[in-house]
Amino acid sequence: MLGMCRGRRKFLAAFLALLFIPALTWLYLSAGAFQEKPLLLSPLEAHPSSPLGGVGEQQALELRVRLVEEENRALRHKLSHPPKDPYAQRPQDVRGGNHSRTHSEEGTGDSDGQRNAAAGNASDCVQQPTVDKCETIHVAIVCAGYNASRDVVTLVKSVLFHRKNPLHFHFITDSIAQKILSALFHTWMVPAVRVAFYDADELKSEVSWIPNKHYSGIYGLMKLVLTKTLPSDLQKVIVLDTDITFATDIAELWAVFHKFKGQQVLGLVENQSDWYLGNLWKNHRPWPALGRGFNTGVILLLLDRLRKLRWEQMWRLTAERELMGMLSTSLADQDIFNAVIKQNPFLVHQLPCFWNVQLSDHTRSEKCYKDVSDLKVIHWNSPKKLRVKNKHVEFFRNLYLTFLEYDGNLLRRELFGCPSEADHNSENLQKTLMELDEDDPCYEFRRERFTVHRTHLYFLHYEYEPSSDGTDVTLVAQLSMDRLQMLEAICKHWEGPISLALYLSDAEAQQFLRYAQGSEVLMSRGNVGYHIVYKEGQFYPVNLLRNVAMRQVHTPYMFLSDIDFLPMYGLYEYLRKSVVQLDMANTKKALVVPAFETLRYRLSFPKSKAELLSQLDMGTLFTFRYHVWTKGHAPTNFAKWRTATMPYRVQWEPDFEPYVMVRRDSPEYDRRFVGFGWNKVAHIMELDAQEYDFVVLPNAYMIHMPHAPSFDITKFRSNKQYRVCLKTLKEEFQQNMSRRFGFAALKYMTADNNS
Q1: Whole-angstrom Cα distance, residue 93 to residue 662?
Q2: Close Cβ partners of 617 (under 8 Å, ≥ 6 residues apart)
Q3: Backbone dihedral region of 293: left (phi > 0), alpha (psi from -120 to 50 degrees) or beta?
Q4: In whole angstroms, what is the distance from residue 444 CA to residue 428 CA?
Q5: Dist CA 654 CA 351 (whole Å)
Q6: pLDDT digits over 311-339, tens only?
Q7: FRET partner for 434 with CA separation of 20 to 30 A, picked from 257, 343, 576, 739?
Q8: Got the DSSP string for 526-544?
Q9: What is the rounded average pLDDT of the residues 525-545?
């Protein structure tokens, strides 16, 4: 009996549940419908003063019931089909995303915006505005100096990695950054990417009157004048700091412009530190700000509206007024932006904080995300950069390092379906490559001649002014990662300027950076220019590297060396004296520095010619490559050099390849020669054809240090086809010389073909 009673109770409870739950659900959904969609009740609300009765009232009620029923059916359908995406929003997230928009979207509150963003970081149920597939997204970045030019590349990589739209970068730069970035983008050749440069030096007078304590200096104020700097027909732009990393498609941020309402012209994320609250330390007095203030690392600017609002006059008046009491800015343009917003809060559209997750010490950045999928933009806005304190800093650091070391060549992706502007350089390159015969056994050699290698000039800080006497000389060399250990030794032997081209991958470039920054010898030298040529293809483009280094020479003369050689102590000053002695300015001479070699890894480097001759006699030193390639340096006439006290002329001979000092305007190396073989021989032949005199210096020398055989010389020795192709290229070069120089070049045609 007891069991039967219990069974009846359970049955009764289930029956009541089945009866009341649908009714309660209908009431809840109906109430939710009235609350969520007030505009659906417009037939009743449109005329609140009209009397309720008669036919009009009946029609309004019927319309109201039908609309509510349709809305309820739609909501039931959504609730009965939950999203499959594990990161999709739950019903409570929908409500969190649709309510309380006054603060989080309009920007009139402080902490509410962060709470709402954290509660609903994924997209709202309401369909987000989309960006047209082929719409160009404009991005403005202020960049000045060597370090910022290096940092901005990581930002650009992260944007290119995720992007699906054409991009137009607007760089406000000093002369240094413009030179670096223009060369980089010219050689990067990314489809559907345009770049424009604006001279920051011309804008200095606009902001130089503002005292600024921030480490960014005067360039940290340049964003204030973008309405005046950027083209007058440009209506909107995304403005980014160089220490930004994107974790999503920038088109999602561009789409936020559609959410701007009324007089909103600035899209900003709330500042995530307590800086503007003024409680960081005793007597801390920040600039005025709305609540926590806003961070200007990521800004959406409606340029056309800002111009109509007389933005220039607005920020200037505000800055002048506040500087009377503050005396200077602490956070550069950010202080002035916030002071303007404090007076005119209607200008700002507050972005969810995942659009600018600020990783400086003591920030509230952790409130901006619950999951990795929430992250949109990471901002390394601490002077400590990657060493900042944060609970998830390892994750952020790894994300940053991913783009830092990512192969930029992989970002040369076409945007299918979008018409792109004609790029004549790219078109000419494609046309040239199409003319090559892919069945030619030497196709890869020929193709390398036309390969455009992405190039980053002045990877590290460079500061040098050539001497005013017109005798200065730059040492020119090229190297790969396996010769990095030679840099410190060369710097100790050569005190003058150096121009180096390094053939590295993106990851190796970062290894080199860490190596250089950890070397006291290299960091103490500001007159060494490091130019990164990024790896591409199967050959070592030795002559391209030499040409890159030569083009960055700023002195009247250059000493064309190789990284494996150590110049004698004092060679820099000796060459400068020889410039005057041999009247290099008015004659075409190539000054030959005799080359020697040692097979010992530890060598007591000779400090004079007498010491060198002694070691030569003892067998510690040898004339360079005497045992494998005598012809390369035999014309130097080492027997004569032993006793020479005055410079002497020598004649060109086949396969002559000395190391020489020439004027900066001397011809470049021929790019058809890659890897091992004939790369220097062809250049010396070119100098001879242009009637350069080869003059051997009697008291100069350089010594080749031992190392493992390079990969290219190994291929030359083991691969017959490699040698066949090199011979073919050599013959073609000789024929080209004959066409260019006529009868005078016959001697090059009859030169021994042994290489």
Answers
A1: 71
A2: none
A3: left
A4: 19
A5: 70
A6: 999 999 999 998 888 888 888 899 999 99
A7: 739
A8: SSEEEEEEE--SSS--HHH
A9: 95
Q: Are strands 294-302 and 236-240 parallel, antiparallel or unpaired?
A: antiparallel
Lowest-confidence range among 27-41, 302-316, 645-659?
Answer: 27-41
Query: Of 699, 534, 514, whose CA–CA distance to 613 is shortest?
Result: 699
Which of 755, 561, 589, 564 shows the shortest CA–CA distance to 688?
Answer: 589
Return contacts of 722-729, CB within 8 angstroms, 24+ apart.
722/675, 723/677, 724/441, 724/442, 725/441, 725/442, 725/445, 726/445, 726/673, 726/677, 726/678, 726/755, 727/753, 727/755, 728/442, 729/442, 729/445, 729/672, 729/673, 729/678
CA 336 to chain centroid, in Å, comes to 28
* Tens digit of each residue's pLDDT (9 = 90 or more) over 546-560: 999 999 999 999 999
Q: How far apart are CA 638 and CA 625, in angstroms?
A: 13
In sequence order, what are the residues at sequence separation of 6 or more whose Cβ sits closer than 8 angstroms to the Cβ of residue 176? 144, 145, 146, 149, 458
* β-pair partners for 597: 622, 704
What type of residue is 583?
D
3-state secondary structure 209-237: CCCECCCCHHHHHHHHHHHHHCCCCCCEE
**Which residues have a Cβ under 8 Å from the Cβ of 388 and sit 6 or more positions away?**
359, 360, 361, 380, 382
622 CB-contact burial (10 Å; exposed 0-12 / middle 13-18 / buried 19+) = middle
Q: Could you tell me the two tokens for 405?
A: 């070391």
3-class DSSP state of 460? coil
Distance CA 675, CA 329 (A): 55
Angstrom CA distances, 493 to 513, 542, 570, stand at 22, 23, 7
Residue 2's CB is within 10 A of a number of other CB atoms, namely: 6
Residue 666 CB neighbour total at 10 angstroms: 19
Q: pLDDT tens-digit profile of 198-223?
A: 999 999 999 999 888 888 888 999 99
Domains detected in the chain: 137-406 (3.90.550.10), 455-745 (3.90.550.10)
Task: Tell me the C-alpha distance between 185 and 195, whole Å.
Answer: 8
Q: How far is CA 136 from CA 52, 248, 253, in A?
A: 54, 17, 13
Residue 66: partners with Cβ closer than 8 Å, 6 or more residues away: none
End-to-end alpha-carbon separation of the chain, Å? 110
DSSP 676: S
d(C-alpha 153, C-alpha 404), whole Å: 8
* β-strand pairing of 266-270 with 294-302: antiparallel
Rounded Cα distance between 696 and 289, Å, is 71
